[in-house]
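FAQ: What does the model actually see?

It sees only this:
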Amino acid sequence: MSIAVEALATPGQELGKASELKAGKGAYVSTENGTIYASLTGFLSLIRPPSDSVDQRSTVEVTGHKAHGAVPQPGSIVFARVTKVMARTATADVVCVDSKSVREKFTGIIRHQDVRATEIDKVDMHLSFRPGDIVRALVLSLGDARAYYLSTAKNELGVVSAESVSGGTMVPISWTEMQCSLTGQVEPRKVAKVEA
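And it is asked to produce this:
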């Protein structure tokens, strides 16, 4: 079976026989009949084996046709905009994952116990975050079906950018306070230690 390089494939489309080709990314071999099928929508490509390889079958791959943006994974560092602050949680929309922008909407939740590493029982969510704040956070887990669980419980995590009530840019003055550059008013935050 001859396959044109960069032809479009759809899931379930027959790509060839396992006796002639090897299944690469985006393809699989059916155990019933030894046929290779596409597992996603994308472009086909044939990768020839090195000349000294024992197995001289080419590998067929399907590369997704949509360019997916970054997706949060446990352990990733994300930047998120706080949208809502409640007594036990703060909700935020993830805007960047490991310095790559996201193309889809991902919601994160910062729980009361994940705000800081010490004095967890003294955490007041309304004194740590405000809607509109940009926070640097660590993705703890995938959470429930609606949101990722985020943590700011390290020195380098927390609010990195904020706007005061009067609309001025906030400047960090301590681990727990930021000051308005226009009015000089001090507001409480869980401030991130930003590397220079």
